[in-house]
Amino acid sequence: MRQFGVRLLQLIPVLFIVTLATFLLTELLPGDPVVDILGPEARPEQIAHVRHELDLDAPIVTRYVHWVGDAVQGDLGKSLITQRSVSDTLKTRLPVNLELGFLAQLVAVLVAIPLAAWSAYRAGRFFDRAVTTSSFGIVAIPPFLSALILVAIVALKLEWLPNTGWTKLTESISGNLRYIALPVITLALGEMAIYSQLLRSDMAATLQEDFIYAARARGLPNRHVLMREALRPSSFSLVTLAGVNLGRLIGGTVIVEKIFGIPGLGTAITQAIPSKDYTVLQGGVLVLAVTYLLINLLVDVSYTFLDP
């Protein structure tokens, strides 16, 4: 618990840098949001009135302090275009990305662990070479191409799953899983290939340790040796990479969202850029950054459980 508190305190300067960079990012963008809202034909007094209403006439330091203070309380302002609360928009979008990211990671890890364990046990043999070759081939295929291949085969030719659309988990679990299956598989393929090779390399080294020979000398079955004795000390690199990739998956699924018609946070952010909806852009980037930092905090703390 003490280590968790120390790590949490270390996040404070990082959060300061993240919030400052996020705020300045939109400040440096060209154009005037007030003119974008009212149009180029707006009169100067109208522009001044709206600028005052949005607090854009205040000094940049004052606006930053107010923005951070409101964000800490869960208030990220209103959309400049729709006038809808940014917090409400993100509350409906972020769960989509969280579900997509967590399920993709879960599938990738559950498939990668047994593949890596058996490959390490059969190092240099046919199964190991086949898994390694397949992994390199999968990594070479970009996610958008994997998505298009899966849509062409699974959705259009075999008609097993829908290719676009979305159903909330709260509305229908089965419907939600049908729509999210192909996006999850698309994202999990690349992660699975990387995880299996990373864990295979670490486990191959661990299997040469003295305590593994001692476990085998006691007559323990291979499954026990691989999944109990060798897996935990070999999983540091896997846990680190999985934690980093989870944050990336949650915030970096824009292409997959577009292909499969998923109403995620990435889509909201990309739509906010051309429309110059700065408040949505600020709020979305901030939420993704904080989520990424918290995931990495949990990864750091998990090391204690992996190696007390």
Write structural notes for this entry.
It is built from 14 helices and no strands. The protein starts with a helix and ends with a helix. With 308 residues, the protein is mostly helical. The mean pLDDT is 83. 76% of the residues lie in helices and 0% in strands.
Treating each run of at least 4 consecutive H or I residues as one helix, how many helices?
14
| Mean pLDDT across residues | 83
Q: How much is the radius of gyration in Å?
A: 24 Å
Instruction: Tell me which oligomeric state these chains represent.
Output: single chain
Q: Characterize the biggest β-sheet.
A: none
Taken in chain order, the helices and strands follow as HHHHHHHHHHHHHH
Helix and strand content put the structural class at mainly alpha
Span between N and C termini? 13 Å
Q: In which range does the helix fraction lie?
A: over 70%
* Unreliable runs: none
Beta strands, count? 0
Strand content: under 5%
Apparent shape = globular
